[in-house]
Structures are given as C-alpha cells and as structure tokens.
Amino acid sequence: MTLLTWNCQGLGGSLRISKMTHLACLITSTKAHVCFISETKSSTISRTSLINRFNANDALVIPALGQLGGLWLIWKQDVLVTVVEHSNHYIFALCNNKLDNQNFGLVCIYGDPYHRLLDDIWMHVYSFVQSNQNLPMFCMGDMNEIMHPNEKHGPGRTDLHRINMFRDAIKRCGFIDLGYSGPAYTWTNKRFTSAPTFQCLDRCLANADWCMIYPRTTIYHLPMLRSDHAPILTLLDSNRHRSFRPFRFENWWLLEDDYDTTARNS
To answer: What is the pTM of this model?
Structure first.
C-alpha cells in the first residue's frame, strides 16, 4: 500500500489547473491508495468532483475558511476508510488495507501555521490514539513544527520551547519519526535572492505496533514542485535495499524521564 501527503498551497479554484494535473500525475505514478492534501484554500470543490478528477473510490472534503486551510482525504478501492473525526486541522480515520486485511488508524495533520493550537490539535490526536490502543497507527501531514533545531536552515533563531512542546506531544501519543530518503527540507519561503529559509515541516510518524507490522515502511521526500512544500510518499513494502548503519547513542536520551525503564525493557 502507498500513501501520499502534500500541502498544495492552494489550487486556484479549479481542478484543471497545472497544479492539479501535477497532483493527478503524482497519484497515478506513485499508485497512491490514500492521499491527504492540505491547504487547498478552496470551499467550492465537491466530493464528487474529487472522485471523478482523481479516479478515486471516495473522498472527504473539509472546505477552507475563506482562503485559509482546506483539507482533502482521497482513497482508492483497495483501502476501506471510515472517517471518525475531523476539523480544519486534522482528519482521524479507521482503515482496512484490503491488500493484507490489516486494520490501522490514520491521523492526518495540518498544523496551525500560527502555532497557537498545537496543544489543542495534539490533545485530540492523543484522545483518538488512546481510544484505539490495539491498532497500529500512522500519522502524516504538514505539522508546521520541527522536531530539532537542525531541521531549520535560514535566518532567525529556532523556538526551542515550541520544539519541546511538539516532541512531548508526539511522545505522549506513542509516535516515532519514520525518517526519510531524499532532500532534508520539505518547505521553503522561496526568498532565494534575499533571506531563504528551509524547514522540515512535513513528516510521517507511527507507533510501535505499526513498525512491527510494517517494518519495511519507507518515506520519500519528493521534489518540491508547484508548491512551497514537498510531497511525502510512504511505501509500506519497499524493495529498497536498506544499508546497515551503526547504532548511534544520543546523549539527550539520558535526560528523558523514562530512559531507565525503556532501556531496561529493551
């Protein structure tokens, strides 16, 4: 199974513009079974229009508020998707991968670009995860946050308090970052001649159950075209050869309250 997430930075009010043609090509070329699109900036596109345009089995449309936000969840017939809860910043769904008859939880996130709702968004995520503790969980989207200072390149200091809040929220939900192949940064302000900034705002997370069931999950940062964000592709059964990298111990692990317990159990 293949999943795709992309902040498209607006669609211009039509599914026939070049950006939407690019999205259609992405979905086709990656054979994406589930596709999460954020920041559509549209309140006029219907569910039926999405199904017809992208040859999908079904879709969920959350309209933008004016020119702000807007979310789509699009899925093919190989995946059964039951949307449980949604807002302008997230979609929670219970899914069944018909290819292997595996049930899993899906969390799609469009983080608050103004950084005011981080706690609120992730409290809802935590509630959904806790309500489905027996399921493998996969989380993807534009988080609008970074997890480490080195995930930003450009002028201005990183907000360490916000980084710690985001990491704590992820940890509370039992998620781990799945890493990636490709360029390090998934967003740019495009000010290439003055003060360019690059950040890794888009990512994929999963819980331990997911990693046990789909240990070969591979994340790819695709080329940043027609948007200031890169699409993120997830392959559950990648044939890509994984190199055997040496284990690296991070000193900051010692500062975590549950380090001793986790190390002992492992």
So the answer is: 0.89
Count: domains in the chain: 1
Q: Hey, what amino acid is at 32?
A: A
Q: Would the pLDDT of 165 be above 50? A: yes
Dump the DSSP string for 90-112: EEEEEEEETTTTEEEEEEEEE--
Containing structural domain, residue 258: 2-265
Distances from the Cα of 213 to the Cαs of 3, 100, 135, 216, in angstroms?
16, 11, 10, 9
3-state secondary structure of 70: coil
CATH of the domain at 77: 3.60.10.10
User: For residue 67, is pLDDT > 90?
Assistant: no
* pLDDT value at 243 more than 70: no
pLDDT of residue 245: 57
The CA distance from 156 to 184, in Å, is 19
Q: How far apart are CA 198 and CA 114, in angstroms?
A: 17
Q: CA 55 to CA 257: how far, in whole Å?
A: 48
